[in-house]
Amino acid sequence: MTAGAAAAMLFATSYTFWSQSIIAEVYALDVLFVALTLLLALRWAERPTIGRLAALFAVYAIGFGNHLSMILL
Known about the structure:
Layout lengths: L1 H12 L1 H7 L5 H20 L3 H17 L7
Helix pairs in contact: 3-4
């Protein structure tokens, strides 16, 4: 319990923690697009239709526009 309280106090008073907390990054949105792309790929593999494939490619293209790490997917 003491270690948890000490860690909380260190985070609460840390300059680096608070300076990084207000910077907008694209990683959260990228994770959303990766998860959505994988979900659509699984649904397309389950029952392949042109509509599901188009939705998969549309989400992948939007995600690729957000962050280039989508090319690894």
